[in-house]
């Protein structure tokens, strides 16, 4: 889903993503090339580069470098997905088998590493001085992965730890996209540019957290037209998300024991996912997760209200479509 105001930019970004990949994956490394093309072809949203484009346009006039920089954000995101699927031992992404299943963990990791370097090179070529920001973003994303790995299958973790992980894993990437976009704009006054970047940084962080909350709620049955995971994937993989945290906090001793058995030991049988959904619905965990996602979404829109232009309206449109349209 692309806001109409960004439609022309979306087509250019899509071409730029394919150009970056085509220019960096050696053709004689067939498996790696196929794995990268397989992942790139399966992503129709290009959400994060649209955030970069929207941020640049919200700041005013835009330089020619915004499209390749936005495309580099998408390439960087694809790299994290290749690694995530290996870490999580995932088998399905966007309704199709993951690259690590089709090829191997080795190919997926190497392809992800290659995409990281291609994204970094592209950012450096088109936006001098931004690579330090990219390194910082990747460091925070890795911290989020480490936090999730440390907390894996520990359902009793508190919701504040979940939010911290969501901010590091998802919020950092979306705020990074927004800040890069603002840097690729031609804001005339330095102080004005710095203030704009701060607002867009905050927008990206809150948008990312809201997106993660909405995605996690949909895994247990919340309705969202953009949801593309197989429902119950987090439950089957023992990934502890906000709905599980809230259900554990509010459940009876017997219900807590069920969640511990299912999520912490991985002992999942027939009907257990349906039982988990019923528990989360009964405790209000899904509805409250959706409500929290919308709260962060409204906060995100508040950060960009002062821009008052068509591009900022496009960013708000993304919040509405990806966050506010979710129903418990």
Task: Give me the secondary-structure topology.
Layout lengths: L6 H16 L7 H12 L5 H12 L7 H22 L4 E2 L2 E2 L1 H4 L2 H22 L4 H21 L7 H25 L6 H30 L13 H4 L5 H9 L2 H12 L7 H11 L2 H20 L5 H15 L4
What does this protein look like?
The protein is mainly alpha-helical and 328 residues long. The chain has one domain: Farnesyl Diphosphate Synthase. The chain is 72% helix and 1% strand. It has 15 helices and two strands. The chain has helices at residues 7-22, 30-41, 47-58, 66-87, 99-102, 105-126, 131-151, 159-183, 190-219, 233-236, 242-250, 253-264, 272-282, 285-304, 310-324, and strands spanning 92-93, 96-97. Strands 1-2 form a two-stranded antiparallel sheet. Helix 3 (47-58) crosses helix 8. The radius of gyration is 20 Å and the shape is globular. The two termini are 21 Å apart. The mean pLDDT is 82.
């Amino acid at each position: 889903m692309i806001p109409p105001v960004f439609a022309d930019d979306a087509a250019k970004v899509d071409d730029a993503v394919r150009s970056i990949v085509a220019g960096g994956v050696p053709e004689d490394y067939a498996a790696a090339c196929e794995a990268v093309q397989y992942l790139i072809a399966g992503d129709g949203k290009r959400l994060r580069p649209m955030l970069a484009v929207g941020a640049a346009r919200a700041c005013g006039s835009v330089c020619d470098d915004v499209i390749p920089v936005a495309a580099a954000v998408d390439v960087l995101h694809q790299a994290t997905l290749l690694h995530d699927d290996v870490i999580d031992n995932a088998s399905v992404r966007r309704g199709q088998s993951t690259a690590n299943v089709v090829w191997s963990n080795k190919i997926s990791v190497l392809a992800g590493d290659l995409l990281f370097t291609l994204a970094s090179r592209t950012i450096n070529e088109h936006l001098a001085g931004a690579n330090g920001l990219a390194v910082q973003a990747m460091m925070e994303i890795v911290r989020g992965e480490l936090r999730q790995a440390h907390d894996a299958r520990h359902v009793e973790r508190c919701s504040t730890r979940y939010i911290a992980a969501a901010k590091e894993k998802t919020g950092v990437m979306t705020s990074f996209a927004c800040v890069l976009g603002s840097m690729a704009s031609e804001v005339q006054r330095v102080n004005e540019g710095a203030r704009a970047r701060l607002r867009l940084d905050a927008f990206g962080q809150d948008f990312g957290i809201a997106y993660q909350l909405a995605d996690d709620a949909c895994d247990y049955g919340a309705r969202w037209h953009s949801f593309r995971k197989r429902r119950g994937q987090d439950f089957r993989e023992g990934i502890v998300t906000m709905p599980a945290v809230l259900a554990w906090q509010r459940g009876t001793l017997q219900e807590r024991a069920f969640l511990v058995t299912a999520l912490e030991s991985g002992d999942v049988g027939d009907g257990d996912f349906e039982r988990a959904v019923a528990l989360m619905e009964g405790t209000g965990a899904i509805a409250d997760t959706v409500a929290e996602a919308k709260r962060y979404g409204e906060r995100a829109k508040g950060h960009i209200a002062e821009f008052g232009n068509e591009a900022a309206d496009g960013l708000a449109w993304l919040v509405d479509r990806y966050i506010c349209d979710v129903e418990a």
